[in-house]
């Protein structure tokens, strides 16, 4: 049994607007319903083992107040490509972000909702990832996170140290997953989380039990009666595990409407600091 990373889930005041930004930024397509927008490569299917991780945006009323633990890093193929991409992203509404890293070869921007992301300089390791080079997770212990996720998914470890740890799909497709040591992490409600999906035919209850033996814990975020399970990994990062046998390409409008209603319910129950 194993899981695959299928998407980074963002929260936004205006999911449609943020979805349009990421469609233009990544060159992908979107499908929207009331309060939810999915952004993915054309033909994306969650259960396809060759599918790349995508972006899901859910509307919430809470304003952005904290730095997310998860951010995206975008790949470029040349210095000119990087320059052109940064300029285009700014035209789309991205703004420069100062995260105190000083003189670095990459550019840090914030999308129209304030989510920080990086545009990397050309790196050989990311030449075949597609537009997203890495999904980066801030954490206190990269080794522990790499061990957990290496066991939870069938992804391959590409380097584990006390600072960064790097994994990628065993199929060698899509972005890397990087765990970056980050001091002084705050224990706040995570408005970005990772969604994972099992392979077709795997038993949900058995998979959840397996994750718990690895150190995951069940999490109640007010999700109510839904077909997926919410857990927290060993670093406290929330993970949504969809039910087994999920075959849809992008969420249909009815499902997106249900997501919107659940998100609104959670917003009434929880206030961000």
UniProtKB/TrEMBL annotation:
Region (Disordered): 243-273
Pfam families linked: Glyoxalase_6
Superkingdom of the source species: Bacteria
Residue ranges, compositional bias (Basic residues): 261-273
Domain Glyoxalase-like: from-to ranges: 10-120, 135-238
PANTHER family according to UniProt: CONSERVED PROTEIN (PTHR35908:SF1), HYPOTHETICAL FUSION PROTEIN (PTHR35908)
Name the record gives this protein: Glyoxalase-like domain-containing protein
């Amino acid at each position: 049994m194993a899981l695959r990373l299928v998407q980074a889930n963002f929260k936004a005041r205006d999911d449609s607007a943020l979805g349009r930004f990421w469609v233009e930024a990544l060159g992908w397509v979107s499908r929207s319903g009331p309060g939810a927008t999915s952004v993915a490569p054309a033909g994306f299917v969650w259960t396809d083992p060759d599918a790349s991780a995508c972006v899901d945006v859910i509307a919430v009323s809470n304003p952005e107040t904290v730095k997310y633990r998860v951010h995206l890093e975008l790949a470029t193929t040349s210095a000119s490509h990087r320059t052109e991409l940064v300029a285009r992203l700014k035209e789309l509404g991205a703004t420069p972000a100062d995260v105190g890293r000083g003189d670095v070869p990459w550019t840090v921007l914030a999308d129209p909702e304030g989510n920080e992301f990086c545009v990397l300089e050309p790196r050989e390791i990311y030449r075949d990832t597609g537009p997203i080079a890495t999904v980066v997770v801030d954490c206190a212990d990269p080794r522990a996170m790499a061990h957990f996720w290496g066991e939870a998914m069938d992804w391959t470890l590409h380097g584990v140290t006390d600072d960064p740890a790097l994994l990628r799909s065993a199929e060698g497709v899509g972005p890397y997953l990087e765990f970056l040591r980050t001091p002084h992490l705050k224990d706040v409600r995570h408005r970005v989380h990772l969604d994972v999906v099992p392979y077709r035919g795997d038993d949900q209850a058995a998979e959840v039990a397996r994750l718990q033996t690895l150190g995951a814990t069940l999490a109640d975020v007010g999700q109510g009666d839904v077909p997926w399970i919410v857990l927290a990994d060993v670093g406290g990062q929330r993970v949504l595990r969809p039910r087994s046998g999920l075959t849809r390409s992008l969420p249909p409008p009815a499902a997106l409407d249900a997501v919107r209603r659940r998100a609104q319910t959670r917003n009434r129950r929880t206030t961000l600091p």
